[in-house]
Structures are given as C-alpha cells and as structure tokens.
Amino acid sequence: MKKIPLDNPFAAPVFYRETTGSTMWDARTIAGQGGTHGSVVVADVQEAGRGRVANRPWKSEKGKNLLFTILLRYPGIAAIPPALTLRTGLALALAIEDFAPALQGRLQVKWPNDVMIPLPKPGTFGKTAGILTEGDGEKVYIGVGVNVGQTDFPADIRGKAGSIALTPGVSLLPDSRFRLLEAFLQRLYAELEGPAQTGDGWRERLEERLYMKGRKVRFIAGAAYSGRVVEGVLCGIGLGGELLIQGQDGTEAFVTGELEAY
Q1: Torsion of the alpha carbons at 159, 209, 109 and 255, rounded to the nearest 10
Q2: What is the CA radius of gyration of the chain?
Q3: I need a labelling partner for 253 at 20 to 30 A (CA). Which of 126, 153, 173, 247 fits?
Q4: Across 21-80, where does the E strand assignment appear?
Q5: CA distances in angstroms from 230 to 55, 207, 213, 237, listed in the order given
Q6: pLDDT digits (tens, 9 = 90+) for 89-142
Q7: Per-residue model confidence (pLDDT) at position 222
Q8: Chain-centre distance of CA 58, in angstroms?
Q9: Tell me, what's the pLDDT at 182?
Q10: Which residues of the chain have a pLDDT value below 70?
Q11: What does 166-195 look like in DSSP terms, one character per residue?
Q12: Beta carbons of 128 and 110 less than 8 angstroms apart
C-alpha cells in the first residue's frame, strides 16, 4: 500500500492499492498496526469484494469505480453515531451530487445501505452504491463501492444497477474517482463530527431522500430470504435507524430485512 495525497478532513492518511482481496481486510490490517480514526484504503479492483448479503458479491470493472473502506475509532459502542450506515449513505448521496451537479437533488438512500440513482426510464432508480459496515465495538469499518465510470453491467444486475457515467450531462476525468472520494470524506466528516451531527436532525435530512418513502412496499423481515413478509407504507426512519412501515395493525419498526417495491 502507498499513501496518496488526497484531502481528508479526518486528518488521517489515504492508502492506495491497485489490486486487493478486499479493502475491508486492508483496513483491519491498518487498524491492527495502530491506524488512526478516519484512515482510508482505496483500490482499483477487489478480488473478493462482497456486499451485505453473502451471495451478492460487489462486481466492478477494474479502475472504473470507487472502492474503499474507512476506519473509524470510538471509545465504545455507546459513542458510535446512531444509524451510521444510513448516515454514510446520506453523506455519499450528497457527495455524488457535489461531484456531479447534473444529479443535484436526484439521489435517494435505500434502507439500509444503498444509494439509488435515476435510470433512463422515467421514475425508475438503480443501485449506484452499496455500503457494508462492520465493527467490534471500538473500531468500525465502512466499506463502500460506487459505480462511477462503469457503463455496462453483468446480465444478472443489468437494469438494476446504475452509474454516474451514464447520467446525461456528466463528464468524467481520469482522476474522477479520487475527487469523489474527497467529496465523500468532506460530507461524512460534516455528518458525523460537524455541527450537523448533534441531535436527531439527520433523520429529517435522510427522510427527504429516503427511497420509497410514502409508497407501498413489500418487506422481508429478518435475515435475507428467511423472514416474514410485511406489506404496508414506508413512513420513515426511527431514532436508531429502524425502518418504519405502517401496516394494517399499526406502525412497526424493523432493524433487519430486505426492502422491495410493492
């Protein structure tokens, strides 16, 4: 790994690898070596990139997208910001809009860990970014994959995935991925450690961009593919990042599950 000169408001280094198994693994190595809060590992390609669900690997063309993990350190579980993954998604959505003004106000955050981008068909969205958060109570690792320059996708996700490069009016430069990373770090720092992090104002900011809010949804509660089916209106986010769904028997809060359109 080598350090690269990117602006990081966490005052921590940004490391680069051309090829790696997983930036998540690299971040754990850095943490074990005393890596500081806000340290980042970014790579051109991950050979073992993975998503939240075990059988959904993150597929990415080499050098086209932004693949990284950020290490965050806290004195204990109680100090970890609530709804950290969702707030990371909010910061990422805002950063993408900073980076690509043609997308201003158009990104949405899908509970619990995706960022959605408009697709060519009016009214439809595709996944442009995914977030995987892991931790041990004092160290948190946030892995992020963003489709930046990729313009074609494998058949199994074609029509479900989106890319910044496919947005009309967006022009990408060779170092675009790293400029987006800088924009994200600025937004994440402001979200977690700036004045905006106090209280629960993050919920209002998030709900303004919450995918499927106010619409009928089908929700698979519990572990992927194994929970009960809940149908109702997605009405918001709880104080801890829970998904709130209004059904026939009232509003229920969920901490795990799979959200689907109705």
Answers
A1: -130
A2: 18
A3: 126
A4: 40-46, 66-73
A5: 23, 20, 15, 16
A6: 999 999 999 999 999 999 999 999 999 999 988 889 999 999 999 998 899 999
A7: 81
A8: 12
A9: 98
A10: 49-60, 196-199, 223-227, 261-262
A11: GSTT----TTHHHHHHHHHHHHHHHHHHSG
A12: no
